[in-house]
Amino acid sequence: MLQFIKENLVIVAIGSFVLLVLVALLIVLLTRKKKEAHKKIDNGELIANAMKGDPESMHKLALAYLNGDGVEENKEKAFELFKKTSDKGYPYSFNYLGECYLKGIGTTVNNPLAFEAFRRGSDLEDKEAMLNLAICYTHGTGTLQNFGKAFEFYKKSYELNNLKAGPYLAGCYYAGEGIAVNYEKAFDINQKLADNGDILSLNRLGKMFLNGEGIAKNPERAYKCFAKSAEKHDPKGMYNQAICLYNGLGCKKDPKLAFNLFNEASEAGYKKAMYNLYICYLNGVGCKKDLDLASKWKENFEK
What we know:
Shape: elongated
CATH superfamily of the largest domain: Tetratricopeptide repeat domain
Number of helices: 15
CATH class of the largest domain: Mainly Alpha
Number of strands: 0
Radius of gyration: 28 Å
Order of helices and strands: HHHHHHHHHHHHHHH
CATH architecture of the largest domain: Alpha Horseshoe
CATH topology of the largest domain: Serine Threonine Protein Phosphatase 5, Tetratricopeptide repeat
Distance between the termini: 80 Å
């Protein structure tokens, strides 16, 4: 009798569990349908307002078409709407219009028109358009190359709190492109960006600590910068950390860890690491000597 009761209790428990699972699935499905319906309503309103000629709604609808957000992705419609809102003077559409021309999104590539769109967006204080305008000046895309103008717009964009412009601006100060070399300013910008986890800036900051550029030499802090970059699986950071470990710069020499980092960076396609991995295998540094693998990585480096 006791056994019969136990068996029935198990059956009831299993049945209750299955019922709970089914209820939970039903709730998920209903919630999803509700969200989809809400999205459709929102897009319906958005389309209606866009058809009335409201620039902000037209811009948002263009973004929806660009990304397939609640509507079927349509790059051509996105481009058309960005062009119409730009013609209406909507400030944030010029950058997207420029990118469409630059990358051939929904239209044919046209660098001069891309440059012009970025210029008009910059005139309306759009920091993203300023960054793209500066990049055009740097590379001579759609205009004549002009490092002075590039620096000017990198600086303006950065001062409007566009952190993406920071590495470019720091690079100008470091290399003296469009402005006199100023390691101190380059260091300050790299420090700020590195504190926010920017990988490029971490490597640049490490290099400046290592060489004493804009700051007193500090190999220990250089090593920490490279290690942080390597933790983010950045091949250049791995290579730089490995160089420190190989030579004992700011840390104890550790040939085995250096070899492992050279290997990981090489597998990720970083050329400089391939050469050092070749040297490791050739001389048995941090690994067993292996002339076949040494030859392999030397060939990969030379490709």
